[in-house]
Amino acid sequence: MRYASIARILGVLLMLFSTTHLPPLLIDLCYDESTWRPFALSFLVTLLTGSAIWWPFRQHKGDLRIRDGYLVTALFWIVLGSFGALPFALSSAPHMGVIDSLFESFSGLSTTGSTVLTGLDALPHAILYYRQQLQWLGGMGIVVLAVAVMPMLGIGGMQLYRAEMPGPLKDQKLSPRIADTAKTLWLIYCGLTLACALAYWAAGMNLFDAVGHSFSTIAIGGFSTHDASIGFFDSPLIELICIAFLVISGINFSLHFMAWRQRHLRHYLKDPECRAYLGILLALFLITAATLVAHHHYETPLQSIRYAAFMVVSVATTTGFGLADFSGWPTLLPYLLLYSTFIGACAGSTGGGMKVMRMLLVYRQGMREFLRLLHPNGVFLVKLGRRTVPDRVVESVWAFFSIYLVTFVTLMLVLLALGVDQLTAFSTLASCLNNLGPALGDAAAHYGNLPGSAKLVLSLAMVLGRLEVFSLLILLTPAFWRT
Fold first, then answer.
1. Beta strand ranges found along 14-74 (DSSP E)
2. Distance between CA atoms of residues 64 and 72, nearest Å
3. How far apart are CA 207 and CA 85, in angstroms?
4. Rounded alpha-carbon distances, angstroms, from residue 317 to 69, 139, 294, 310, 467
5. How far apart are CA 390 and CA 208, in angstroms?
6. C-alpha span between 184 and 180 (Å, rounded)
7. Distance between terminal CA atoms of the chain?
8. How far apart are CA 154 and CA 357, in angstroms?
9. Kind and range of the H or E element at 388?
10. Dihedral pair phi/psi, residue 222, rounded to 5°
């Protein structure tokens, strides 16, 4: 293990992260709310800590090995979440304890959107902006951003990219150099954020809300600057804009890159994962709308269609914006939407869940086993489109699927042991592990009433979900630490 390289990178990343405490200072100056002190102190503490870690190893040069990349990624998300909690812990409005501050920070950076806060409309603008910014930074992954600057530090970043990027095909790159890949991803990410903010602004949001909600929309996060979330604006146009950008953000970003480079959209419909993703959203919408209409849950069928369209996209993409309380919807709908988060969005997107591609491969492998039962001597391949998927990838998907379920069951048993009731434990864990946010039971409104120990377990679940389980659990294996 190259601990000098790891310490040097961690120090640099902490120093970079310290600068994220500065924009809220400017927001506070604009609104003159005198809430700048927690951010100023957080900036200094984070900067000095990063400098202290970096300074002894500033002259060290060296590339990362695979295990180094996994350790840096895990350490950085844990350390980042901890330092990201400082402004919450030091602020008097809202007044939050250490555990609640950590929970809110990890929820933001993992783009989960679970919150312990209420009364958002009365909170200082600097705090509201900081929450949205945390989600935006976590959306594509701060580690990927760091990869873009690694060449300037004399350190290669491919192992960080492999450890952080979601999806089963991590070795695919958009350009020959990994730094160019990271820069390309962030250019697309920033471009979509700008377009989303301008669309919200044009639709009637004020500039502060437009920027804040564009951050959490493109990040598929779900934090809002209002307690009523998107429902605060009561605008079908804003909801339509939100749906469009959520669907776009849930698609593999490499497809957006291809659209930008080749100037056409045909490859979206040619991609099997994208087609399956859109098909799942459409099927969920039809079932949800039909059920709401049949049960006369809203006054008019048009209202049912409106709420169904928004909440299906918001929940199934693991965003968690609110327009209606889906926990009170009739029959199977609350559980159907919650189960859909286990599928989530596409690989290579900012969404959570196990990813559509993995579910596709699990389905195709299942069909192959049926064929093998019927034709024991036959040779059958697993394909996505015209491409044959290597057996190694299929095996890794099954391994991930198994570990994911074992992790879910284990953490749920822990929550039950901590005194959380069954419905709340299941829904909060599903929500946090899949990076959704909203839940059922005692956490239907917010997570503030849960025991502190349960919040720490759920914070761990958020990071596990964001790093897709393997990248964190691999640190617990003896083989990882063998030289």
1. none
2. 9
3. 26
4. 28, 13, 25, 11, 17
5. 47
6. 6
7. 7
8. 35
9. strand 387-388
10. 110, -10
387 bridge partner residues? 384
Q: Is 310 exposed, middle or buried (0-12, 13-18, 19+ CB in 10 A)?
A: buried
Contact 400, 470 (CB under 8 A): yes
Q: What percent of the residues of the chain are helix, what percent strand, and what percent coil, each to the nearest 5?
A: 70, 0, 30
Closest CA to 195 of 260, 282, 273: 260
Residue-wise DSSP of 183-218:
HHHHHHHHHHHHHHHHHHHHHT--HHHHHHHHHHHH
Instruction: List per-residue pLDDT tens for the chain, 483 residues long.
Output: 778 888 888 998 899 999 999 999 999 999 988 889 999 999 999 999 999 999 998 887 767 777 887 888 888 889 999 999 999 999 988 889 999 999 999 999 999 999 999 999 999 999 999 999 999 998 877 556 555 544 444 444 545 555 555 555 455 555 556 667 777 788 889 999 999 999 999 999 999 999 999 999 999 999 999 999 999 999 999 999 999 999 999 998 888 888 888 888 888 888 899 999 999 999 999 999 999 999 999 999 999 999 999 999 999 999 999 999 898 999 899 999 999 999 999 888 888 899 998 898 899 899 988 998 989 888 888 887 778 888 888 888 888 899 999 999 999 999 999 999 999 999 999 999 999 989 999 998 899 999 999 999 999 999 999 888 888 888 888 888 876
Helical pair 422-433 and 333-343, crossing angle rounded to 10 deg:
30
| Helix runs in 317-390, H state only | 333-343, 356-374
The one-letter code for the residue type at 455 is K
Q: Tokens in use for 299?
A: 């006054």
pTM here is 0.91
> Which letter does DSSP use for residue 124 in this model?
-
Residue type, 13: L
Q: The tokens of 68 are what?
A: 């180094």
Torsion of CA 145, 151, 153, 159, to 10 degrees: 70
Encoding tokens for residue 272?
């099997």
The CA-based angle 88-94-98, given to 5 degrees, is: 40
Widest distance between CA atoms in the chain: 75
C-alpha–C-alpha distance, residues 90 and 41, integer Å: 9
